[in-house]
Design goal:
With 135 residues, this protein is an alpha/beta fold. The chain is built from five helices and four strands; from the N terminus they run βαβαββααα. It has a single domain, classed as Collagenase (Catalytic Domain), CATH 3.40.390. α1 crosses α4, α3 packs across α4 and α4 crosses α5. The longest helix has 16 residues.
Amino acid sequence: MSLEVANIHPNIKVNRSELKRFIRDKLKELKVNIRGKDINIVLADDEYIRKLNRDYRGIDSPTDVLSFSMDEDDILGDIYISLDTALKQAKEQGWDLEREIKFLAVHGLLHLLGYSDEDEEGYNRMMELTERLLG
């Protein structure tokens, strides 16, 4: 498995190695074997995420996290996180940016693993699991 984290945000720096280590630990905790599958996490700004959201979901506004599952043998998928939105949400929640990024990364990862939050039951299950994984 290859796990890559790219930070293309022009101003906000993030410890990419720590995020990679965190996601690897969560995969082990979930007892998920994604051997031979790649995951890419891209940390971007609101404008970048807004364009993705518009082009792929038809929603012309930024969002916090987008996950794109790949139906390919060697790629599990891509997770895009807006650091601008993550920073705003972290301030609103009263915690630091690192925790918010981890929260969003886990949420995106769960989507790649097949979890859905489209209905109340799925949303509650994902939120409960996300919070448990964050400790």
